[in-house]
Recover the amino acids of this structure.
């Protein structure tokens, strides 16, 4: 990978930050107004992570749009931090969730050598972000669950990650068609997004 690929431009930092803050605001609304209602039927079950796709999308979208090492992690952490600052019932653990979820997606983009940006890479990145979310939360959030329930919990989180991966891929494609991603390779090569 050449220097050009590794170096972040100002526009990369600004757009990743804007994406992160925008998702952080979405998280704050989701966490405070939507999640408490939609999670009720799943409360205290290992299926609760299945509705967590929204929390995994910034990492995948950040990676797909910016296409630089660290973009998935950075965008997810900015989103988690913004959400935390607007008040979260989960407190500081939101920041660590963002770190783990961002690292999950980042690992996939790194394994793909920051060169594969299609639907398969997006699904893998989302699934890995979900896997990281599921493992982290099965230890931190639901330590009382049996090993079997924790396995189901992690699988539900991976499912949410796959949903996040495909939704992110479609969203980036839609954004590319509008022209707003023109400064990025993701906006210039729609067929590859």
């Amino acid at each position: 990978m050449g220097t050009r690929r590794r170096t972040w431009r100002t526009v990369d930092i600004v757009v990743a930050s804007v994406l992160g803050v925008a998702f952080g605001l979405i998280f704050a609304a989701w966490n405070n107004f939507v999640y408490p209602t939609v999670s009720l039927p799943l409360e205290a079950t290992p299926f609760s992570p299945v509705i967590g796709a929204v929390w995994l999308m910034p990492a995948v979208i950040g990676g797909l749009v910016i296409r630089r090492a660290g973009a998935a992690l950075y965008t997810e952490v900015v989103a988690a931090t913004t959400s935390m600052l607007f008040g979260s019932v989960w407190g500081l653990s939101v920041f660590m969730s963002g770190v783990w979820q961002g690292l999950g997606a980042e690992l996939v983009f790194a394994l793909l050598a920051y060169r594969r940006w299609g639907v398969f890479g997006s699904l893998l990145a989302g699934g890995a972000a979900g896997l990281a979310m599921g493992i982290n939360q099965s230890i931190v959030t639901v330590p009382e669950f049996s090993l079997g329930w924790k396995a189901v919990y992690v699988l539900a989180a991976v499912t949410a990650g796959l949903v996040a991966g495909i939704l992110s891929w479609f969203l980036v494609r839609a954004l590319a068609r509008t022209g707003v991603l023109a400064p990025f390779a993701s906006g210039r090569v729609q067929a590859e997004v």
In short: Residues 65 and 185 are 8 Å apart (CA to CA). The chain has a mean pLDDT of 90.
